[in-house]
Structure formats: structure tokens, C-alpha cells
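> Could you send the Transcriptional regulator, AraC XylS family prediction when you get a chance?

Sure thing. Input:
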Amino acid sequence: MYRHEMVEPSQQLLKLIVHTNSFANGNVLRHWHQAIEIDYPIEGTADFTISGKRISSKSGDVLIINSNEIHSVDNMNTNKNTLALTFLIPYEILIKEIPNYESYWFVLPKKREEVAIIKHDLYLYYQHSQIEDEYRNLQLKSDMFLILHDLLKYCSHDKNTVHGLPRIPTLHKLAKVIDYINQHSSEKIMLDEIAQVGHLSTGYLSRTFSKQMGMSVMEYVNYIRLKRAYEMITNTDKNIAVISDLTGFSNPKSFSKLFLQVYKQTPGKYRFRLKKS
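Output:
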């Protein structure tokens, strides 16, 4: 029933998610992070929304998502041959290894041969991540620096020279709020309580959050709950009502309603299709 495998070496290197299993269509809800994300669907398709721009990816495409770009994924079509790689380069590594990192914007190059180099780097990291031996972490560290080198060489641009640079939200204002929601979403939390955590008025928080995230604060709370409920549905045999309670929904009906709205199926039917696949 697992949709993906997380490859995370003992040392702090790249985080790699390998999507391989056949399962029903799914979504990755709108989110952001300071890491650079690189998606490489070797076999498989999906629709991405990155900084408000809709992108339909097909097998062999590479997508680069810069730090703090709000993005989501839907219409993920997978089958028994699916192989899709998601790389997350932690912010801590980026600012340590790339001088003046904050001044760069990363875009996939237009030249085929340069794109081929990036693809080769990514696939090489994936191949070595699948080998279990005493040299694995050293090899992955070497591969990581190759990826960083070629990203900087072929994909980096000075932000001041990039035409049509998407507006990146000032998410640092909401960092405490978002962290609090992530930590307490399974509890009964209210808007005024969340506002107090960020030392903001409820009005200011509501306006700023909606503008930056494209949804209300409480909608975001429920989407975080839904994300965790989805993981339980796909990876455990817990009862639907129990999952609803554990993730903070007021009742199973409100959970099922939101699940149906996002995933186009009830939680029970979704799990049933997963088990059959």
C-alpha cells in the first residue's frame, strides 16, 4: 500500500523520494519549503501548480521548484512501471555550499545537452541510493556535490536579471503560525489561539495568510489534517472514524466531505482501490 520510499542517508544529504508503486490517482496539497525541489518523472505523468503556474509534466521531464515557491501536484497517474524521483536539497546545504545562494534563481536550461547532464546527475544519485554497502554515504555525498555543481553551472541565474520572476511570498511572517499548526493540527485549535502564537491580530493574520497561501487559516488547518489522514489511509489499517479523530477533524462526516472534495472519492473507496491495485 505504500506509495513511495524515502531515501534519507544517515548524514544530512539530499532527501530522495522514489515513487514506484501502482496506486490510484492522488494529490500533493499546496505547500512550501525552503529546500529546492527537483522532480524527475522517468515514467509517469502529473500536473504541477508552481507559483500559480499550471504545468503538465510527462515522462522524462525535469521540474525545478525554488525555495519558498508554493506548489501542489494533482492528477498523478501511476502504474506498475512508474518511476518518479523527487529530490529535496535542504536549505542548510544550499546556503553552506553555494556562495550568495539567496541571489540566485534556478531554471532548467534550454539546451538539450545541458538538460541531459542534469538528468544524468539525478539518475546517478538514485542508482547509488539503491546500493547497500559501506561506501554508500560517501558515494551519495560525491553525487550530491555533482548535482549542486551542475545546478549552479547550468541552471542558476541572478534574480535581478530574470524576466517575470514569480513573486515569492514573505512567508517568514507566517513561519511561527505554520509551525504551530503543523504541531497542533490534531488538536482543537481556533483562529484567535493561532493568531496569539504569531503575535498578530486575527484580522491581520486572516488577510495575510489568505494572500500568501491562497486559502484561509482554518482551511489550511484542515488540509494539514487531511494530509496526515491520507497517509494513515494509505499506510495503515486504522478505521476511518479513528483516523478522523486522530487527525483532529470534528467528526468523520467533515473528514469524508473534505477527502471527497480533494481526492474525488470517499476515504473507504480510496482505500479499497489501493488494496486492489
